[in-house]
Amino acid sequence: MSQAEQIEYQFSIFHQPCWRWGNLRDEKGDLVLAYVHGFGVCTNTAADILAPLQGLRICLAKGWFDIIMEVDSQVIVNWYKNMASVPWSQQASCFEILRLGALLRLRWAILIEKEMVLHMNYLNQETLKSGASFFNKTSEGETSDGWEEEDETESEIGDGWEEEDETESEIGDGGDGGGVVLRDVPWGEHTLSLAREVLLQFGDDMKLFAFKTTPRGYIYVRLDKISNMYGCPSMEEIANYSKLYKKRLEEVGETGQIPDDLALEVSSPSAERVLKVPEDLDRFKDMPMRVLYVEGESDPKHLQKDGVFLLDSIKTESEHCVWKLANVKENRDPLSKGKPLNRKQKDWRLTLPYPLLKKVTLYLS
């Protein structure tokens, strides 16, 4: 049986009338049409919801992220509303798979055309299989099936994972801005030291970009690979680190030094990573950057501006940097029909002192 036939068989186990197959285009079993249709036309019945979720599970396991990108965003959002139809015994697993798919599709930037995953969330295999570390907690304020209650009258149904703050990113926020944020949890320093200990096995090319812990027992780790153009470790490296770190957490948890039910999420820096000025500028000098800045420091009412630039040079002694226009759509004449920058645009320069650079991120077309 070919790989494509094996995948088709796995899908057929969960086959429903709403499922449209389309043609298998190659041996990889690229079921884009069937997969998208399964998401798009399924009803609210539990069986119809579970069928495409199994498809999502297979696509994630096989690394077929291009297939996931075919799914319409609103479809995934609608699925959250329909999860009440799924039996309680299977909701934890469904939310787990669905959330990972939603992260890949909606939040993390996956640039298939550049063959580069800029930010890929990877959950350790033990958690993916059982969800024990975050779905089956039973403590004050939680029910035995993993839902957390805000108070006696109000509850928030989630997928078992605590979302990272959606506030504006800034340097040192433990997320897109990098840095370490422990939120005063008593076990924070110990888990941070374990994260750094495991990282030593990966050599000098791998650094800890961000580390964050939360009072509810979540650990968010973002790894930065220095030699990679975007700072992205490979999926294998992220998976390996996640496995090794989870093992150390479990070992130390058994001794009682840290909680034994911590939830772990390991990823690479996101597409929205905030660059440090001036430290990161030279590293990403060959890539377009979106720069938020103020012009005219003598004017107390100066307004913020933004642009897509390339770094031209850094003047270390005077702490200034010089920017030039990047050859991207935003900087071209909309009537030029794809023509590159003209001579005047190519010669344009902007010199700014470090303090006037309010935020610098990588630009994604």
- Total strands: the figure is 13
- Spatial extent as radius of gyration: 23 Å
Whole-Å distance between the termini? 41 Å
> What fraction of the residues are assigned to beta strands by DSSP?
15-25%
How would you sum up the major sheet?
5 strands, antiparallel
General shape: elongated
Give the uncertain stretches in residue-range form.
1-45, 105-161
- Provide the domain count: 3
Tally the helices: what do you get? Answer: 11
Give descriptors for this structure.
single chain, 365 residues, alpha+beta, 3 domains, 5-stranded antiparallel beta sheet, 4-stranded mixed beta sheet, 33% helix, 19% strand, elongated, disordered N terminus
Q: What does it look like?
A:
With 365 residues, this protein is an alpha+beta fold. It folds into three domains: 1-107, no CATH class; 111-146 and 169-274, no CATH class; 289-362, no CATH class. The protein has eleven helices and 13 strands. It has helices spanning 3-13, 32-41, 46-62, 65-68, 73-82, 88-107, 125-130, 132-135, 188-199, 235-254, 343-347; strands at residues 110-111, 116-117, 148-149, 155-156, 179-181, 206-214, 218-225, 263-267, 289-294, 304-315, 320-325, 349-353, 357-362. The strands form four sheets. Strands 12-11-10-9-13 form a five-stranded antiparallel sheet. Helix 9 packs across helix 10. It is elongated and about 65 Å long. The protein starts with a helix and ends with a strand. Residues 1-45 and 105-161 have low confidence and may be disordered.
Q: What is the gist of this entry?
A:
The chain is of the alpha+beta class. The chain has helices at residues 3-13, 32-41, 46-62, 65-68, 73-82, 88-107, 125-130, 132-135, 188-199, 235-254, 343-347, and strands at residues 110-111, 116-117, 148-149, 155-156, 179-181, 206-214, 218-225, 263-267, 289-294, 304-315, 320-325, 349-353, 357-362.
